[in-house]
Amino acid sequence: MNRRIIALAAALLVLLCGCRKKAPEPVESPSEPAETIAETAAEEASETAAETAEEPDTAAVTEATAAATETTAATDATAEETEAQPSGGKPADYQGIKQPDKPLPDRSAGMIYREALENLRDHEIFPDGSGCRIAGSMDDNRFAVYDIDGDGRDELIIRFDQAAESDQIELIYGINDRESLFEELVCTPHVTYYEGGLVRVEAAPSDGYRGDFKPFAVYQYDSQSDTFGLVANVDALSLGALMAAGLEDEAYPEDADTSGSGMVYYIGSDHPVDVTEYEAWYHALFDGAVEIELPFFNLDENAVSSLE
């Protein structure tokens, strides 16, 4: 009996051990090579950097935009100031005469000059079509019809000085083969004419350290162009004026001031010269020059209508 029980128990034990299932071992993923991991990390870093670059710094952009706006506004203001300042005795609005494509109908010089003066007097329009700014009486402006350049033909000279200093102008017109006006000279009314086509024009007032010296320009008539060409702009620098303004440290070209006069001069260039060189140049031009007294008329109706 006991043997049967023991045998039965052993058989049962064997049966139980055979029915148990072994749990599956976990499957490990193959590890990636080190090179692949490094490449992946690099790509992720590049993408992150690109995303960061694509997102601009809002504060920096706002600050840069504001600075650019201020710079543009300052530039525009400077341009407007510059445009408002006429140079060479030429009002800012004066543009110069545009020549016609075809010759105008045959008319006398007197008729052409009269029409130009009537437009100026009655409509306040210069011969180039620009408007004028008058500060006094239009009748007190003056004109002359005179052969100012010595070419055998009369020119029209308009002296428009009844205006603010910056709007004053002197105009010399001739007539070309198209029966049209053209400018021979545009300058300030502070002008002196000499025989032989020589002209001296006082420059418009400006700041500078030149003492009592008044800058001027010299023009000479050129028969080839039938206009007055610029010979030189002349200016000066005074050592005394610099010292009086507290600018003792300002560079004064002592090497050019060979005579020790305390003045140097600029004749058509930025190169200073001594007073002896300046005087030699000036006397060579103006010694013996004969001044022309122009027969000016007031710009009134009777004087203008008398031109034929």
Name some characteristics of this structure.
single chain, six-stranded antiparallel sheet, five-stranded antiparallel sheet, elongated, about 35% helix, about 20% strand, about 300 residues, alpha+beta
List the helices and strands and how they pair.
Elements: H1 2-19, H2 34-54, H3 58-84, H4 109-123, E1 142-146, E2 155-160, E3 169-175, E4 181-187, E5 191-194, E6 198-202, E7 216-222, E8 227-238, H5 239-244, E9 263-267, E10 272-273, H6 275-286, E11 297-298, H7 301-305
Antiparallel strand pairs: 1-2, 1-11, 2-3, 3-4, 5-6, 6-7, 7-8, 8-9, 9-10
Description:
The protein is an alpha+beta fold and 308 residues long. The protein has helices spanning 2-19, 34-54, 58-84, 109-123, 239-244, 275-286, 301-305; strands spanning 142-146, 155-160, 169-175, 181-187, 191-194, 198-202, 216-222, 227-238, 263-267, 272-273, 297-298. Among the domains are: 87-189 and 293-308, no CATH class; 196-289, no CATH class. It has seven helices and eleven strands. Strands 5-6-7-8-9-10 form a six-stranded antiparallel β-sheet. The chain has a five-stranded antiparallel β-sheet with strand order 4-3-2-1-11. The radius of gyration is 45 Å and the shape is elongated. The model is unreliable at 13-56 and 58-87 (pLDDT under 50).
